[in-house]
Amino acid sequence: MFRRLLPLLVLIAATLPAAAQERVLNVYNWSDYIDPYAVARFTRETGIRVRYDVYDSLETLEGKLSAGRSGYDIVVPTSEPTFARLLRAGALRPIDRAAIPNWRNLDATLMERVAGIDPGNRHGAVYLWGTVGLGIRVDRVRAALGPEVALDSLDILLRPENAQRLARCGIMVMDSPTDVLPSVLRWLGRDPNGHAAEDLRAAEQALMGIRRHVRTIIASSSILDALATGEACVALTYSGDVIQAQARAREANRGVEVGYVMPREGAQLWFDMLAIPADAPNPDAAHAFINFLLQPDVMAGITNHVRYPNAVPASRPLVDEAVRNDPNVFPPPEALARSFVAGTPPREAERERTRLWARFKRGR
Fold this sequence. Notes:
46% of the residues lie in helices and 15% in strands. The chain is an alpha/beta fold.
């Protein structure tokens, strides 16, 4: 009898409305970039199961989405250049604000800073943000460069004589020309978005001047662990990775003191965006997830867990005091005033930057 009913049951299941079948949300995000409790709570409150994958470079994310039919409902591209390029390629779906009442919780000032590439903020909401700077092993840097060294400048790394002294204790640079080259140009006193031949030559000369002292050029997620264990004493990377490394080093209690250097020359400011691919299989679940994340208590929990600032001001009172008052997490106004947002260079300039970066990685 059951065998006779089985085809009928399959037919009924196939024709049930989506709400009556299992709902699944497919998320593609940076590694170590969310509070696991938030994911579990979302499923508990909505009944939507989350399939969560991670990546460690923007190139990986962009490759997945550019190929089409990625199967993801939520992605978290950095505003420049990946979000901007995906937007120009028509790879992102406009967001239905009516489905996200918590959109009103977003910081209007931060959203305005990404509106230049997404007019009207139609395709993305700021998730987390931060700066690019140096993670340092404070004691070893002072031992190598002298106790009076100023811990507020890219001089620590980019002056060849300093890099030579620090080489023995381990120098790392994140494998991201998008984030490294603008910071180098700013340190040189040039336009961080400069793409003229002389700008790129100057940046390449600065990088090649320290290349033989750099131990490795690697994904930022790997730098986090190296800083926490003391394997590296200087690393050019994202602020949040350094702050996470600080927390891990304190928990390990092995005498490793990790500090963060926000460059006085002006730090690169970046924004990671919550976005929905144009061919997302479950856009309703994606909208529900964005709306969930933009609740102040949810965003506070994420910031407490990953040590990156978020774009929901009402979450600040709920953030742990040590995190809330850390100027490396939430930079003071004067530091933000010196910061800059890198743009996407023209295609030919971007190709030249890619070739430059390949030479830097090879060391010639």
